[in-house]
Amino acid sequence: MAAIVVENLTKLYGGRLGCRNINMTVPRGHIFGFLGPNGAGKTTLVKTLVGLLHPTSGRAWLLGRPLGDVAIRRRIGYLPENFRYHDWLTGAELLAVHGALCGLPARETRRRIPEVLDLVGLTGRERQKIRNYSKGMQQRLGVACALIGDPDLVFLDEPTSALDPLGRREMRELMLALRARGKTVFLNSHLLSEVEMVCDTVAIINRGEIVTQGALRDLLAPALEVEMEIEGSTPALEAALAAAGREVKRNGGVLRLTVGDRAEIPGLARLVVEHGAALYRLVSVQRSLEDLFVDVVQGGN
Amino acid sequence: MFTIAVLTFKEALRRKLLLLTVLLTAAFLILYTLGVREAARHLPDIARHDPLIGSVLNSQLLVLGLFFGNFIIVLMTIFAATGAVSAEIENGVLQTIVTRPVSRAAVIGGKYLGLAGLLLLYAVLFSGTVVGIVNHYTGVGVEGPLRALGLFCLVPLVLLAVTLLGSTLLPTLANGIAVFALYVVGFVGGTVEQIGALIDNAAMERIGIISSLVMPVDALYRKMVAVLTAASADPLAVLRQMGPMGSLSEPSIWMIVYTLLYAAVALALAVHVFGRRDL
Question: Could A52 and B92 be called an inter-chain contact, meaning their C-beta atoms sit closer than 8 Å?
């Protein structure tokens, strides 16, 4: 059973588009990256899934239960994009409140608090008032709050926006550790490198609609790119290379070709040699998520 | 719901509003005690010159104390609850609460219970102190103290339901102004009704009844004063209940039933509106 199934979900704000006709499936035990430019509808979808917004139409299921099911939220954690908590409480008090809201017995909450504090690197700070926390510490505490009930599905909306590079790395490790324990993470982020490093599956949303989705490996695999540094190139050589590759981009002395298959690469080197030009460098470049993102978003625009 | 009630109670307890209210109340009680003591000391002289004033002075002092308490508790209720939902929507705190396995009805219920607990505590302590001060210096007792206390406590409970409903519909400041304006409508209407009763003007009394239907909190206060100062078969009872703060025209028991229904409907509407609202 999938962790999240969304069917034709649409959310309009007074006629204005939030997200439209969203269909997606997030497998259990995956880290799912949800990407899109600013204002594309990412947070709208997350807020609809966690029950903050009511969908205009369509359906969705979280861990097999339909949207609006209150009990299933016991197994769901959520870090909002604009995290704000009762800042007059200490970190430990806030976690105790959220443990109680999750329905955890008091003893279980007491056991979980040091665990989650350790997970997010806040051990020793739990007696401090939240209002004295830095922004980064508050975000860490927000993640701890999301995890206090040991959820099977965690929604993290821009979880590293307030973290320094070290904190970002720790957060990535935390997500990987959650996946290793069979948990599902829905990561809403515009940090493509972050998504690329941890996600198994991704979806890209633009102007409220999903423009592509699937396993990250599959989305990036079909487009194998080759970078060639050539000296003494002739129009005939370039025509031959253009015929061999699917797409040719020139950047100074460097040519970038998209080929359909890895086996085509030696043939490119042969063409250069046959045309009497000098080949100084030939590297196959895996298409990055950024390339994919730019392609699908700009293509949509 | 219990967790939210406790959280709401603790949050209200630590706000500066409560500290200010406690300081203001303390200042009032000190002045009030001095006033009642002086009045009690000079009462024999006053009664000698003017027996009529002498016989109604003590109950007028009691009504004055309770009027102030009622007014403070009205303000406290409005200020404590005006942003209970709206402010937490605006600052985002509610996002982490309503995504927990807690129904939205329980969020409203918890907030109501938490704030009601604090307001009731204040109402009981204040009214007990005022009655105690008057009783100590003048020996004047009250009629039906438990009924009166019940009515005094109903004031914040009813107003809290209305303010919570407003908080699900309006921004914090707008809600505070709207609920206070509604209270003023009830109070002015209630005062017109009292004057109408005094000069036997049916139209003025009707204005009071209509305003009480719009905002019945003032009717609860009038009923409480009537209960406290009603000495049966005493022709001076009329005088004791006179004045804009008094209760010459006593609201009927049906007004109390209406008020309870009014609060229940307001709370149910608050749950309904909040349940459908996008956050």
Answer: no
Flag whether residue A74 sits within 8 Å of chain B, measured between CB atoms: yes
Residue-wise DSSP of B21-82: HHHHHHHHHHHHHHHHHHHHHHHHHHHHH-HHHHHHHHHHHHHHHHHHHHHHHHHHHHHHHT
- Chain A residue with CA closest to B14: the answer is A88
CB-CB under 8 Å, B99 with A76: yes
Select from B96, B103, B279 the residue whose CB has the most chain A CBs within 10 Å, as the one to mutate to test that interface.
Answer: B96
Q: Which residues of A touch B92 (CB under 8 A)?
A: 80, 82-84
Q: Is A65 on the interface with B (CB under 8 A)?
A: no
SS3 (DSSP) at A270: helix
Hey, what amino acid is at B58? N
**What pLDDT digit, counting tens, does each position of B210-232 carry?**
888 888 888 888 888 888 776 54
pTM: 0.84
Q: Provide the ipTM.
A: 0.80
Which pair of structure tokens corresponds to residue A8?
Answer: 């034709």
Question: Do A282 and A255 meet the contact criterion of CB atoms below 8 Å apart?
Answer: no
The 10s digit of each residue's pLDDT in B228-247 is: 776 544 555 555 555 555 66
Residue pair A103/A69 in contact by the 8 Å Cβ criterion: no
The contacts found for A116-119 with CB under 8 angstroms, 24 or more apart, are: A116/A144, A116/A147, A116/A148, A117/A91, A117/A92, A117/A144, A119/A143, A119/A144, A119/A147, A119/A174, A119/A177
* Distance, CA of B279 to CA of B268 (rounded, Å): 19
